[in-house]
Amino acid sequence: MLTTVRFEKSVIDSILSHALDTYPREAILLLRGKKGEDELLINDIVVPPLATHGVGFSGFPSLMLPLDLRVVGVSHSHPSGHLEPSSHDLNHFYGRIMVIAAYPFQSYSDIAVFDKEGSRLRWQLTSGL
Ligand SMILES: [Zn+2]
Predict the structure, then answer these.
(1) What's the whole-model pTM score?
(2) 129: CA distance to ligand 1 center in Å?
């Protein structure tokens, strides 16, 4: 049971700035990290190979994904500002968590983390430094 999701600050800041750079198209990033028994630490992001961006759609051919066991989830942006996963999102869930960044991508409250049932998970920044 996943109870804690922690992000390094640089990851969250990159998710927001990438979403802003890609706006009004959707941005998509792969999340890499470490899995513990009941917690996940996200400490790296990767731009997926052959990512496609469109209005209301972002995705990548899953067959083109590198076999990378450190990928624990996917982040994408919602230029609509709607901070909830769509049914399409849940049907294409990949990994342990889904991160959604909603327009205007200005603050940490524009980011939410979901499990594969679409339930919102609590997240926090690593307390390092
Ligand atoms: Zn979505």
Answers:
(1) 0.87
(2) 33
